[in-house]
Amino acid sequence: MKYMRMPIEIEAPEQLGYESIECNLTESSYTDFKFKDLGINIDDLVIAYVDHRGHKGLRTLLSNETGSKVNPDHVLLTSGAAQALFIISTSLLGKDDELVVIRPNYATNIETPRAIEAKIKMVELSFENNWRIDPKAIESAITPKTKLVSITVPHNPTGSQMSANDLAQVIRITREKGCYLLVDETYREMSFTGVLPYAAAAAPHVISVASFSKTFGLPGIRIGWLMTQNSELFEKFFAAKEQIQICGSALDEEIAYQFYKKKDQFLPQILANLKRRFEILKSWMLSQHDLEWIEPKGGCVSFPRFTETTLASIDLEKFYKILNDSFSTHVGPGHWFEQHKRYMRIGYGWPTDAELKKGLASISQAVQKAKN
Questions:
Q1: Does domain 44-261 have CATH number 1.20.120.80?
Q2: What are phi and psi of 316, to 5 degrees?
Q3: Which of 69, 126, 187, 292 could link 154 by a cystine bridge, Cβ 3.0 to 4.6 Å?
């Protein structure tokens, strides 16, 4: 394994120190909860080894959302979605094995296969094509050597959302081509156009991944999961987890279970706050002329870019330095996603309304100060 640190992690706000950032628009999640606001009692919890698959009650709740097509024993709790992605890549790919993956993407979906020295074929998404994940482009990229196809729905960092028909086409294509399909569904319940069923429920060659980190504002408990109908595949993933950590944290899993049991008490308010903040972002985008975007259809992030006119008149390095140093405002620059720095990811689900408004105004001011 040839590990390399990723820019998105090196420059992450938790590495810089949250206290040093006034307006944090880098986050790709909903606002972090405080434990006292969850209404959870764990006083009687025994701090012991737990079921190696993960909390049975939580796995049952998750599997029930797949229409009983995925057995609870084929749901594997992991240390965040990041560990699930690591397990999948290291279980299915070796040196020179072929992966087809969309780009831009969450860095781990690309960097772990790189560390393995897998052969990676990128399906490039484009602003001009509305960041659409095109089934035909994926089909064209697949060869007889392709072992795994990796997509993200809804998409990070652009906020685009696959239609049910497009997703069904990709599922059909990968089944016919004889390769596995990984669907990162971390933002699944944040879709603006209707929540799709877990992809793993559609066919045995499909693997779904999600977590508590993004939609539910609980990244600190480090609970994610993967699910598959394929028994042989699940056993491989299960073995990987046991060798990496034996089992998860009893504390984290109990918090996740109690939270998810009353998810319906939290999710409506989360989505209402998200909608309100999205409208703040949308109004700002409509009010300025330096950035253009493809309006997101899901998630809590957007990926606007500088217009050609502004790009010709702005010093990009100066812009980011002014934004960070003079306005104490941070966004996710394009290089976090192997894109040009004219792009930036703006996360609107994490900051308060006031922080979001101030951060967006700071972007406007920094643009003017960085123009030639």
A1: no
A2: -65, -40
A3: 187
Q: CA–CA separation, 175 vs 287, rounded Å?
A: 46
pLDDT at 20: 83
Which of 55, 39, 64, 58 minimizes the C-alpha distance to 265? 39
CA distances from 278 to 26, 103, 146, 240, 302 (A): 15, 24, 38, 39, 9
Query: Is the peptide bond prior to 157 cis by the omega test (within 30 degrees of 0)?
Result: yes
For the chain, give every domain's residue range: 7-28+266-370, 44-261
Characterize 220-235 residue by residue with b for buried, 16 or more Cβ atoms within 10 angstroms of its Cβ, and e for exposed: ebbbbbbbbbbeebbe
Helix axes 263-287, 353-370, angle to 10 degrees: 30
pLDDT at 158: 98
Helix (H, G, I), strand (E, B) or coil at 57: helix
pLDDT at site 239: 98
Q: Give the CATH fold of the 7-28+266-370 domain.
A: Aspartate Aminotransferase, domain 1 (3.90.1150)
Provide the token pair at 290. 């330096």
Contacts of 175 (CB under 8 A, 6+ apart): 203, 205
Q: What is the pLDDT of residue 67?
A: 82
